[in-house]
Amino acid sequence: MLQYMYAIVFIVTGFIIMELSGWLIHKYIMHGPLWNIHKTHHQHSRGWFELNDLFSLVFGLIAIILIVLGAKNLDARFWIGIGISLYGMSYFILHDILIHRRVKWLKKPKSGYLLGIFRAHQAHHVNNKRDDAVSFGLFLVPFRYFKSKK
Ligand SMILES: [Zn+2]
Ligand SMILES: [Zn+2]
Predict the structure, then answer these.
(1) Distance from the CA of 125 to the center of ligand 2, in angstroms?
(2) Domains in the chain: how many in total?
(3) At what angle do helices 35-42 and 53-70 cross, to 10 degrees?
(4) In a domain? residue 12
(5) Cα(80) to centroid(ligand 1), Å
(6) What CA–CA distances, in Å, run from 76 to 35, 37, 51?
């Protein structure tokens, strides 16, 4: 029982670390010194891949390294790595499939939590410039995006 609690605590920790550090990285680095890479996500690029996908690769690599390092004893590193991986998969499903429809599997959400984060991310894409963007997180967004407006 205790092992499960241990695993869950660190999985959730990994997930939350990603949303918080992702917010910071997105706001201060991607919309800062690494804008040249991130702008490929904001300005339509040719082809299916964006140079911006490099960020996902880096996060994926960090998760893999943590999982490998922690695999022997199933310690915190292993579970944080799993949390980061789950974040990455959820991010891909919501951001890349649901919101940007890189593959057309899901329809635009009509209500509830998904509609809120959908609107928040659309707000992030309104000006598609480096400066003055809003709403840098994906899962944790300001409450105003959940209020219904027609
Ligand atoms: Zn951005
Ligand atoms: Zn986006």
Answers:
(1) 7
(2) 1
(3) 110
(4) yes
(5) 25
(6) 33, 32, 32
